[in-house]
Amino acid sequence: MMISKLSELLLISRPTASQMISSMEEKGYTRRVMSTSDRRVIYICLTEKGQAVLQMNLARYSGVLNEIIEKVGRKEIDQLIFLCDRFQEVVNEVKPRLLDNLQSAEEHPVEEPV
C-alpha cells in the first residue's frame, strides 16, 4: 500500500502517515519497497514481525467484539447498524442544504446588535 492511500483510509495527512510508518519501520513492523515499474512509487509492506503483531491484535479485538455482541445481542446490534445507516442517509440528504447555509452565512454575515 502507498502512504497516500494509507493516509486516505485513516483520514490523516500524508506527513502524519509518513511519520507513523517511519515509527513502525524503526520497530521492525514495516518496510518500504520501491515499485519495479515506477521508481517514484514506494509501497509500504508489513514485515513478518508486523504480521504477527497484526494477527495478535486482530485476535484480541475479535474476542472483545464477540463478547460485546454476545452481551448486547445480535438483534440490538442489527438495529444499531440500521439506525447508523439511516442516520448517514439523512446526513447525506441534509448536507447540501447545510453547506449552502454555511456559504450564505459567510457571504452575508449577520451583524451583531449594538
UniProtKB/TrEMBL annotation:
Q: Which keywords describe this protein according to UniProt?
A: DNA-binding, Transcription, Transcription regulation
Domain HTH marR-type, by residue range, is 1-89
A GO MF label: DNA-binding transcription factor activity
What is the protein's given name?
A: MarR family transcriptional regulator
The family database entries (SUPFAM superfamilies) matched by this protein are listed as: Winged helix' DNA-binding domain
Which PANTHER family does the protein's record reference? TRANSCRIPTIONAL REGULATOR, MARR (PTHR42756), TRANSCRIPTIONAL REPRESSOR OF EMRAB OPERON (PTHR42756:SF1)
Provenance organism? Paenibacillus sonchi
* Alphabetical list of Pfam families matching this protein: MarR
Query: What PROSITE patterns does this protein map onto?
Result: HTH_MARR_2
This protein's superkingdom?
Bacteria
